[in-house]
Each structure stands twice: as structure tokens, then as C-alpha cells.
Amino acid sequence: MHDKKIRVLIAKPGLDGHDRGAKVIARALRDAGMEVIYTGLRQTPEMIASAALQEDVDVIGLSILSGAHNTLCPRLMELLRTKGMDDVTVLIGGIIPEADIPALKQAGIAEVFLPGTTTQAIVDFIRQRIAKAARSET
Amino acid sequence: MGAEKKRDPSSALSSASSRAPSISERDWEAHTLKPALEKSPERSSSFTTVSGHPICKLYTPADLIGWDPGRDLGQPGEPPYTRGIHATMYRARLWTMRQFAGFGTAEDTNRRFRYLLSQGQTGLSVAFDLPTLMGYDSDHALSEGEVGKCGVAISSLADMETLFDQIPLGEVTTSMTINSPAAPIWAMYLAVAEKQGVDWKKLSGTLQNDILKEYIAQKEYIYPPEPSLRLVTDTIEFGARNTPKFNPISISGYHIREAGSTAIQELAFTLRDGIEYVEHCLQRGLLIDDFAPRLSFFFNAHNDFFEEIAKYRAARRLWYRVMRDRFGAKNPRSWALRFHTQTAGCSLTAQQPYNNVVRTALQAMAAVLGGTQSLHTNSLDEAWALPTEAAATIALRTQQILAYETGVTNTADPLGGSYFVEKLTDEIGDGACEYIAKIDALGGMVSAIEHGYPQREIADASYRYQIEVDRKEKVIVGVNEYLTEEKPIEILQINESVARRQSGRLRDLRSQRSNAEVDRRLTSLRKAAEGRENLMPFLFEAVKAYATLGEICDALRAAFGAYEEAAIT
């Protein structure tokens, strides 16, 4: 098992200020024992990638409700790759049309959580994913 | 629970703390209720509204001891306006069916507007995209991926002229959902009206222009609170002199609720925001009855039917008392709280989206029973994307069915006198008053925002609600119960060609206008912003020279600075 706390960066990319989901997830992950850093609003992909590197996070959770996900997510994934952070799990939640999901996963997004997802489902997903990554390392 | 009072609904028939049961109730409890409960116990140990407010098993005349219908209810069109602001209510004139719309370029949205008007919609409501809401032009680096997505892209007067092409501004009423850049966008609207030859005195509509709720909830702010409030005060002052039929502000609880607040918090924070704006206008030297009649409000219509109705009724009564007692308003039009309602976007589910039609219809009915002046009904597909034309049409038809088929419009305040509704109206009003007193004690709303007080109250309420949903203590059909396999529905796609077309338009604009004139106007705007003059005339001259929204907002950024919040999670 993982002996150190899972570190998660919750980020709001783009111009959208609707932060209810980001805040609820940040609190739920913290209550589940994870170390959570919230970037605050209006972060560019560049700012998110540097924060992720600096904070040495295992997971980045993006909250996007504005429809800008197809532009913002691939750019972030590209930046993570150039920084050698391919092992970071990136998740998105928000208003995401189903038709956009395959391309987002293709770009390297680990999972897309749609409205109505329980916080427990997200906690479980992160734990399983990190445990699997830890097993494959050893 | 912050300032919200809990009472114990299980210990007695009604509120144990507020009253003792009457003899007939005691008889009923002993002879009828008790055996019934033994046979079939209640489904839950407690019953609460969607906001967590406790509800008793029955309400009776004993709940209304101390309630005075003369003082607390009144007649429609008379103080305290609990029963509505018009004597005739919907028997004379229905509410305005005002569907919020905007996407893509100004041409795209102009087409949707003309379609909605041809289908019987009675007022326009403009949704702007995020770059516009944040004061960036469509070709700004931060606009990438966002142009035309959440609303229409408006970067200059040229776009505004296209948006209202063939729509006579003297005949329609227009609501514009814009806040931080509200003043320059309104200046563009006034310029279009002037070009159409429409007298400003005939212009009717609403500017949202409520910056306080942006710091509290929606977070689309640009400048710090004080210069932002100065801009709001400038528009209210300018409106009082030049546009007597236009509402320069719509003090909004909608977004506070969407951010996860309770009904009581929505009401309290909204009215306290209203008080803050009034205080700023009075400090400016305006007389209360010269501007208060044009203050308007905007509330959410969430799932809990009676709680929402009680909220609207309490809002009118409280605002009347605030205006009369706190501000000494003498004009009855200053006392009457007029409001727009939108059904709750946050209640829409991505799962089984057709269920959203039913949710929206019930929420809209609550708004009508609560006496709204105008209404937006959400479309069934909005948990996925902006609405398709077909989905937007069903949403409009929902209002028409309410208006013409259900009969709820036949009498004013149909629920007035209901023991339950009157008691709940009192409780929600009392809860809101406690919050208002608390914010007064913190030194007003700007100070409360700087303390993070309303933000924290909302975050706590929203997290509590999420836990209740996760634990299935609150059932959401199709989400945590009654799940089915589904096929995706058809949704509206906004493609990236919108951004390219907008960038092209901006390039043309910058090459065709007099850039020297634009520079002159922007310089005088910045200088005025550093002083104390009303900025509306300077904004009007700048937009008429086709200065872009981004350029104007940058000039103000140079004078005012930018705001950054300390994030609360």
C-alpha cells in the first residue's frame, strides 16, 4: 500500500469562475485523507503544469464548465509530457459532451467525471489508480 | 448551520419551541396520529427542504399565532407586498417570458433572438461568452477556446449592432447578463439605440450589473470591490437621469444559489447586497426615491416547491421593510421588490435529461406561484451543453403551458393563507434577517466578502448537500436512484470557426476605425477613472469611436487594478 498521502492538485483552467464543483471535490478528497492543493481560478495550462511539478502531485483534477476543454486539456497534457510528468494522473469534471470524451482520453486524460458522479467514486478511482501505479513501480 | 435556526420537528406536532399544541391537536395526536404511526411509521426520522430546513408533519392555525394578516400579508399591490406587487397580478398581464440566449457570433445569436421572438417570446435576454464577461476581446490570448462558447462574443459596438440587427429596441425589452464590464456593454446598447433613432427614455430592459455576487459566488470580477461599486453607482446615477424605464441593476441571488447556498442564504445575501448598493448611491448624494424604484432582483427557482414560494414572498416583505424603515423611502415604487426568476441550472441532471423538462416545469410553477415578473426556463440539455433550438423551444412552451393551461394565473397569490406557506415565509424571512444582522455587524457586505464570510457559508452548505446526495439522504431521480442505461442526446456544438471569424472582424475593425480617436477617448476615460466623475459619458464616447471592450477594460484596469481572491475550499 501507499505509505505517503496521495497528493492532488485541483485546478480551474480557463476564464470560468464556477468553482462549486472544484471546491466540493477538494474538500471531499481532503476528507478522504489526501493532500489537496487548490490553484484558485483562471489558471493557464502553463500555470497548472508548473504548479503540478512544484507540488510534486500524483493527480491533477481539472474542473471545466465553459466548453473550453477541447482546447485546454490537450495543451496541458502536452506540457506535462515535455516536463517529463507523464506519470501524473489527470482527471476532468464538469460540463463535457459525451462526444468529446474519446478525444480527451486519447490526449491522455485518465477519466472524465460527469455531473452526478459521487465524490466517493472519484476517491475510489484515484486510490485504485495510485495503488496500481505503485504496484507497477515495484 | 450559520445563522439558520433549527427547530425540532419530531418532538411535537409543530415547532415545540414556538408554541404548545392546541387541545384539538392533542386529541388528534393521541387518537388518530399515534395509532397511524404505530401502523405505518414515517419514512424518515426528519423531513427537510432541499436546503436542509426542517419541516413539520402538519401546520395548523396554532402555527400562525402572532401572525397578523393585516401587517404580514396585506393585499396584492399593497405593503408589505407578500401577495405580489400588482393588484391584478397575472389576471392583467402575464410575466415576461424571457429566455436567456447567446452563443457563437453576434450573427448566430441575432438569428436565435429573431426565432424566439417569432415563437411568442416577449423579451430578450443576452448571454455573453466568458471573454466578454471578463473584459477580454475575442482575439486575446486568454480567450482561446472560450470564444462564443457560453454565450455570444461581443468585442465592440460593431458586434452589438449586428446582435440587434432588425430588432427594434424601442419595442422589445432586453436583459443583459453582464457584470464587471456592464457599464461599457450598456454604453454599446445605448449607442445602438441612438443609431436606431430610439429615445433613451423609451428603452426598457435590465442590466445585471451586480458585482457583489460575483465576489461571493460566480467569480467573474475584474477590478477590486470599491472601484467596481463606483462603476455600479455610476450606472444607477446615469440611469436615474437618462433612462427612466431601464433597470440599471438586477441584484441576483441566482448565482449564489447555484454556487450551493441554501434558500435562506440566497435571500439574505441578495438583500444585503441590495442594501450595500443603496448605501453607495446615498453616499453619492442620490435621493432614495430617485433610484430605488429601478432596482430589480433575480432569484433562483430550485427543486423545493414550497421553500421557493416562501422565499419569494419573504423577499418582497423584507425588502419593503428595509426600504421603508432602514432607508426611509416614501415612494411605493421604491418599496415593491420586482424580480426575475430562472429555474435552477444546478438541479439539471446529465442522466435521463428528459426528466429535466419536468423539474423545470415544477420550478417554474413555484416562481409563478411566488409572483415573479419575468421567467427563464432552462432547457433539458443544459447539463451537457448550451441548448439546441428544439430544447429551447420546449423550455419556452413550458412557460406557455403554465400561463395558459394550468389555471395558476387566475388569482393573485393562490397559496396566501396556507398555514404551511405563511409559517415557512416567516421562518425564511427570520433566517435571512439573522444573516443580514450578522453582515451588518461585520461592517457591511464588502467587509464580509473580504472576511470570506458569505463564501465560506456557501461552501459549507454546498458540501453538506453533496454529502446528503452521496449518502442518498436526498434522492435525485436518475442520478442516485432509478438509474437506467441511456443513449447520448443530440447537443449544440460550437466550433472553433467562431473564434476565427471574430478575430477577423476585430482585425478589420482596428484597420477601419480612427485609432487616434480611440486613443484620445481611452486616455480621457482612464483620466476620468482616476478622478471622481461619472464614467458613463466617457464610456459612451469610447464605444462610439469603436474602442473594443478589451481596450476599454484595460484602460480601467490601469486606473483601478485587478482583483484576486483568496480561495476558500
Q: What oligomeric assembly is this protein in?
A: heterodimer
- Low-confidence stretches of chain A are none
CATH superfamily of chain B: Methylmalonyl-CoA mutase
The tally of beta strands of chain A, per DSSP, is 5
Low-confidence stretches of chain B: 1-17
Structural notes for this entry:
The complex is a heterodimer of chains A (138) and B (569). With 138 residues, chain A is α/β, with parallel strands linked by helices. Chain A has one domain (7-137): 3-Layer(aba) Sandwich (Rossmann fold), CATH 3.40.50.280. Helix content of chain A is 45%, strand content 17%. Chain A has a 5-stranded parallel beta sheet with strand order 2-1-3-4-5, sandwiched between helices. In chain A, helix 1 (20-31) packs across helix 5 (119-137) and helix 2 (45-55) packs across helix 3 (69-82). Chain A is globular. The relative contact order of chain A is 0.19. Chain B has a 9-stranded parallel beta sheet. Chain B is α/β, with parallel strands linked by helices and 569 residues long. Chain B has one domain (69-470): Alpha-Beta Barrel (TIM Barrel). Chain B has helices spanning 23-39, 69-73, 106-118, 130-133, 157-163, 182-195, 212-218, 225-242, 254-258, 263-284, 288-291, 305-326, 332-335, 355-369, 389-404, 419-441, 445-450, 453-470, 497-512, 515-530, 536-544, 549-560; strands at 96-101, 123-127, 173-177, 204-207, 246-247, 249-252, 295-301, 339-343, 374-376. The longest helix of chain B is centred in the last third of the chain and has 23 residues, at 419-441. Chain B contains 22 helices and 9 strands. Residues 1-17 of chain B have low confidence and may be disordered. The chains are: A alpha/beta (138), B alpha/beta (569). The A-B interface holds A 10, 14-20, 22-24, 26-28, 30, 36, 38-42, 44, 66-68, 70-72, 95, 97-99, 114-116, 118-120 and B 130-131, 133-134, 136, 142-146, 149-150, 214, 218-221, 258-260, 346, 348-351, 383-386, 459, 462-463, 466-467, 469-470, 476, 478-480, 488, 491, 493-494, 496, 564-565, 567-569.
